[in-house]
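Q: I'm writing a short methods note and want an example of a predicted protein-small molecule complex. Could you take the sequence and the SMILES for zinc ion and return the bound structure as tokens? Please keep the output block clean; save any remarks for afterwards.
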Amino acid sequence: VIISGSDDVNATSPAPAIDGTALTRRLEQLGQIGRTAERGLTRLALTEADRDGRDLLTAWMSELDLDVEIDAIGNIYGTWHSGGGKPVMIGSHIDTVVNAGIYDGAYGVLAGLEVVAALRRAGVQPRIPLTVAAFTNEEGVRFTPDMMGSLVVAGTLSLEEAYAALDADGVSVGRALNEIGYRGRSHPTEHAPQLYLELHIEQGPVLHDEGIRIGVVEGVRGISWQRLVIHGEANHAGTTPMHRRVDAGHAAARIQVFLRDLASSNGTLHATVGSIALEPNAINVIPGEASITVDLRDTEDRLLTEAERQLATYCRQLEEEIGVAITSRRLARFAPVVFARDAVDQVEAAAKSRGLPVRRMTSGAGHDAQMMAAVAPTAMIFVPSVDGVSHSPCEHTVPEDIVNGANVLLDVTLGAVTSLPPAPNA
Ligand SMILES: [Zn+2]
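A: Understood, no commentary inside the block.
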């Protein structure tokens, strides 16, 4: 650890620590912007409420002497210029879904501010710059795709494509950025950091249920979406003997049960049939056609591919057994993201050295971190969500966990900004 000043100062400087009261106050204050009835919060990307949230965030960044910069997709960066080269970046988002809670996204950004404050209080002088970032339109409610700001930083989505995205009223991202005054100049791809860290509430029940305080996130589940159309024969429910039926509804139900069993017998697979549409969908007619969606998620690409293969094999088996014909169409396929092993190890070590119970886990939800992983070593820290509730006004994380997570983020950041050699800018 490099502490500025003499050895005397070094000896008496307190170890950096998060001011939990200040962090909670910021969360509650930002959480007042976009308030709706029923205690909810709606701060959709690039709306006036989002602008007000951005104004508050950038004011806080300036108070902390961070250099505020907005890029061409509206991502906000507050940088502590110290040393040289690419920064260590702490990021997340401050846009919300409809009727959201106050923690999703905002927690990671505001904890970043408190990390800066804690390092300043302790007299730490970083060897490389430290940036706190808030990415545009992570939630994707008003504009698709979601995780838009980080996608553009990663170079996966072009600025032009992002600008052209329209909301339900035909307003484009480019126009909405202009209207709220957050269309900056620098190209997002110039902001790739040397290391990316994101602190986030889990948004699921695993940590809460197991009484674990810190989730060490190793990556994000891959997703495979497909639609299966099952062709059978519509016929009379009363007169058609059971052995003569080519029942598309029966096949759909069998696939749903098959996937449920497959997931139960496999430690990491998540499988969901979220939609079943039967034709003609009548009480006294054997379904002649069924259209179902299949959502498969897993932590490794080979596991996801294996689940897809087993489903295809089962469909061939059903075709033979029931006499239906099944066609499949792929709707989406995202490979799992695996975070940088070194960075993940550092998160785990930091949590353990604070005496916090930890477990490694994979995120089932999407985060900016999965996009940033394409351009920088990346790690994520999860804290428990009470009862696993998120995207709801009831979303809650207890104050002790809010502080624990931010302290782990602080420790990993401190290690990085004081030990990483400056890396040249891209
Ligand atoms: Zn989020």
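A: Remarks, as requested: The chain is about 35% helix and 20% strand. The CA atoms of residues 282 and 320 lie 26 Å apart.
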